[in-house]
């Protein structure tokens, strides 16, 4: 009878031990599962961080591209302004040249007019001289004639 009791007790103890082992195993499994979940979460977080970094990099690249485009536009505008200024300068130079030409033409015309006036004056003087000479001669002749008649 006593032996039987002992055997039962032992069996109970064994069962208890088995139960405890099972519980421990379950706990370990749970812990492992938790660890796995944590790892997965960490991986997800890392992936998200990487994505954010990539997005930031993309944004930076886009900003850089925009800045470059703006700089190019500014350079183009400056070039256009320079070209316009050059064109204006050329136009001014051409206008000045035209004005100079006009002035030269005017001077030439004035000189020609002066020459013509001088020529006219000379002609007039010559005519006057001729007239005077002629007149004088005529007068003299007349006088002589008069003298003769006397």
Run of helices and strands:
H
Largest sheet: none
Helix content: over 70%
Total DSSP helices: 1
Distance between the termini: 220 Å
The radius of gyration is 64 Å
Number of strands: 0
The low-confidence runs, each spanning 5 or more residues with pLDDT under 50, are none
Q: Could you say which structural class the secondary elements and strand pairing correspond to?
A: mainly alpha
The outline comes out as rod-shaped
Give a description of the structure.
The N and C termini lie far apart (220 Å). The model has no long low-confidence stretch (mean pLDDT 93). The protein has 150 residues and is mostly helical. It has one helix at 2-149.
Features:
single chain, 150 residues, mainly alpha, 1 helix, transmembrane helix, transmembrane, membrane, ABC transmembrane type-1 domain-containing protein
Annotate the secondary structure layout.
Layout: H1 2-149
Task: Give a short synopsis of this structure.
This is ABC transmembrane type-1 domain-containing protein. Helix content is 99%, strand content 0%. With 150 residues, it is mainly α.
């Amino acid at each position: 009878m006593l032996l039987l009791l002992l055997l039962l007790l032992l069996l109970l103890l064994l069962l208890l031990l088995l139960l405890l082992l099972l519980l421990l195993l379950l706990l370990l499994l749970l812990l492992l599962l938790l660890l796995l979940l944590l790892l997965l979460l960490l991986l997800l977080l890392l992936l998200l961080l990487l994505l954010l970094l990539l997005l930031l990099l993309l944004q930076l690249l886009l900003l850089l591209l925009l800045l470059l485009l703006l700089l190019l536009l500014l350079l183009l505008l400056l070039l256009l302004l320079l070209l316009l200024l050059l064109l204006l300068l050329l136009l001014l130079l051409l206008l000045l040249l035209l004005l100079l030409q006009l002035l030269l033409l005017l001077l030439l015309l004035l000189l020609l007019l002066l020459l013509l006036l001088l020529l006219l004056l000379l002609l007039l003087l010559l005519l006057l001289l001729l007239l005077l000479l002629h007149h004088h001669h005529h007068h003299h002749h007349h006088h002589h004639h008069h003298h003769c008649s006397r």
